[in-house]
Design a protein that fits this description.
The chain has two domains: 20-161, Serine Threonine Protein Phosphatase 5, Tetratricopeptide repeat; 164-216 and 225-372, no CATH class. The protein is built from 19 helices and two strands. The chain has helices at residues 2-19, 23-38, 42-55, 60-72, 76-89, 96-109, 113-126, 131-143, 147-160, 165-178, 181-194, 201-213, 230-235, 247-270, 278-299, 306-320, 324-331, 338-346, 348-371, and strands spanning 216-218, 224-226. The chain has a two-stranded antiparallel sheet with strand order 1-2. α6 (96-109) packs antiparallel against α7 (113-126), α8 packs antiparallel against α9 (147-160) and α11 (181-194) packs antiparallel against α12. The protein starts with a helix and ends with a helix.
Amino acid sequence: MRRATSLLLSFVLAHTMLTAQDPVGAKAKVKEGVELHDQGEYKKAIKKYEEALKLDKDNSLAMSEKALTLNAMGEFETSAALCQEIITKHHGSKDLPMVFVTYGNSMDQLKRPEASLRVYDQAIKEFPGVALLHFNRGITLLGMDSIASAQRSFQRSGRLNPFHPGTQRQTALLLRHQGNLVPAVLAISRTLMIDPVGQRSAADLALLRELVGGHVETNKKGNSTIYLDASKMDDLNDTTFRENDFRKAETALTLLGGLSLASNMNDALKKEGVATSEAKEAGNLEMLLGFLANSLKDMRSANSGFYWDNHGAWIIALNEAGHTRTLSHLLAAGSDDKLVARWLEENKYKVDAYYTWEKEYTAQFLTDKVQE
């Protein structure tokens, strides 16, 4: 009897060892899979995630990364099904917000925006403080032409994470579409401040140039004509209170932007092969942003709204703190001009001081908003 018991115990121990989970080994496999994903080797990445799941069944990170890679491969139905499985098996997991993003994106790619919205609504109920969920909800709403709702989602995302470049970029594009020039300039400026030399910096700088020089046409002789919207000029006599009203500042910005930037911004957009001085551009931006900050400061007490609080107050405080020159060079950092790069290299201490100020300003801003 003792011999039989010993054999049975040995069998149980051996089986347990064979079926034991190995989360450490699984984590290593997931890391390899992520690296392969980043290299575009999606099928190889999937194999690594499957190896991880053999080592640690239902490993949430391996499942999440697999769903993301399936999405990147265009396997949207499979990705969505896996996301549903993850949400069910790992309710409350810290990895779930990104799973919801992958799930919602899969629904969007499958041309099912209503289903995507349900995914984001469920996610926001569980994780209301995750900015990326509100941002992606806004993207879905934009695709449905629900502009006002999309704007509210981007505003919520911007409140939760003022340093998310995608939120600032979409805000700028939406404001441009609405013809709200001044906050659009400030939003794309924040985008470039956050990510001055990223993959999208060239397009972001082009948008900034368009916004500040888009009302100007320059002829072959170099003469510039500034066009003002007559309806907006009429609006200046309207004393009706409106939230996020930047009309007075917009007229001034159009005039100053046209006069100072037409020669080297607008011209560069419209004339292929025309040489421009980006160092001069940085100087013009410094003048323009300083002027805009001082103008908004004079108007601040009579105005309110999200863009006044989040963008107008920001540029006013930045200018008063003496960081306008640094910001102007960061805005032009995505250009090919060596003078801008040299200024940034020689003034690293100013750049570091500016970003320190940004973090402290934003932290205080967020604290104040929570207390309101």
